[in-house]
Amino acid sequence: MTAHLGARRVSAIDLITRLDLSHVLPGVALDAREFGGVRLLEPGALALAEGDLVLGVGVQTAEQLADALLECAAAGALALVVREPVSLDPLVQQLAESTGVALLGAPAGTDWIQLASYFVDAPEPARYGLEADAAAADSDLFDLANSIAAVVGGPVTIENPSNRILAFSADQARGDDARKQSVLGHQVPSNYEKILTSSGVFRQIERSAQPVFLPSIGPGVRPRVAVRIRAGRELLGSIWAIVDEPPSEMQSAALVEAAAVASITLFRQRAGSDAARRLRVSEVLDLLEGGVRAKEAAERLGYGSAPTSVLAVGLTDTATSSIAQEDAVQRLADSLGMYLHQIHALSVAAPIAGTVYAVLPHAQGHPGPEYARRIATTFAERYRRGPSVVIGLGAPVADVTGLQRARAGADRALRVLLWSTGGPRRRLVADAEEVQVESLLLRLSDSLSAERESVTGPLAVLREHDAGSGGSLVETLEAWLDAFGDVGAAAGRLGLHPNTFRYRLRRLSEIAAIDLDDPEMRFSLMLQLRLFAATAPGSR
Predict the structure, then answer these.
(1) For position 123, what pLDDT does the model report?
(2) Domains of the chain, each with CATH number or no CATH
(3) Where is the CdaR GGDEF-like domain (predicted)?
């Protein structure tokens, strides 16, 4: 059987080998039909269809497994993937054999989103008429990886400059654990990336026109040979092969030639990918514009009359460089688009000015805001590709012409979430209504900043004192106010002994003439701390 993995096809044997899956019941044959798509088996997901490969999210017990097999069989799905250990009993075995649904086991630590992202290639070439070019480029890279592996005698990966796996040879079962983790996650694990970066290996590969041999970088990690993929001065990626010894002259020449071939293929692949992404950004922009443009875009995409929500998604940590930040945002957009596609095939997601926006039509019978919240929360909790994410939700609109208003609400909620990521009320998902007060304070703070209004009164005195002495009286005051005068709780928040904290309270009262028993003064100080937080030293 062949399976559609993004734009490419692989045999069932390759599927099991490459993703480290096990065929739990070999007696249930994988027939010659093709996978029609990949679906997540969870509440709210897109309905299963004939020929699907189904990822059994949440399937743990034998009873759940039996129900999942019945659901797959009813839809005509071809295979079900569940995390190991698989709970088999006579009923499950009988169901699998009678339904003909192949049962595959994934390693216990498998992340469903990462596994699904292997199959669902974002962006979707077919939607933009780019399927043939994308399929050809993708197939070329996998064929090239297999050819290189035959020459060097070891498993091969082809990676982009961010060490994301673009293609790999079919013999990955012979690789080490580091390679298997890379292929399963579609990305070189961060711990290995850090070692290669700090030791200067990446820089050495980029500067060398010849393959670079790398001895083992740690226990259980076999030696490798790597060669850059470059066009002119632009680095497009690299080719990595697991080997036991430095390559021969013939093998080195073959690697250099393969890198030249890969550079042509990557240009073709990137052209198709960039075109699809530009078109998708245009779709999202049209929808978020609201009005007539949104209506026209919705008609092009085939939207019906279902309620629609806007998600504004941001990264909580910024990368060290603008290029790395852009790459992280694009990975986030691709992952979100893939995930939402499983929920509703007409959903779209794209990065716009550093924020990832998604437009999600609601499933029939789910008009309320909790539908989008549940989906957003699940994604935010599962996203594991670097910085964590927070998601602002716009109120669902019955007519797409109102999506501009929904986007504004999502933006306000996202800003509050990003501003308060380090606070005690840290949240992953919120809508504009539940963060209205914080949003109003931020907007008022913007106005004060624009008018160059500076803090005055006792708070200004404390800030000046802290700046001159290196003290933390403002922090002490804020902790005390946040704890409603509970010295023990406030001291614990700052890691201080209660007596030390009481001493600081007396000091700040004396220095700034603050009467902590005066409710009006407490309110004024709390308001100032919120309004001028954006301009305070060390604040976000």
Answers:
(1) 36
(2) 10-118 (3.40.1390.20), 129-269 (3.30.450.40), 302-447 (3.30.70), 454-533 (1.10.10.2840)
(3) 294-416
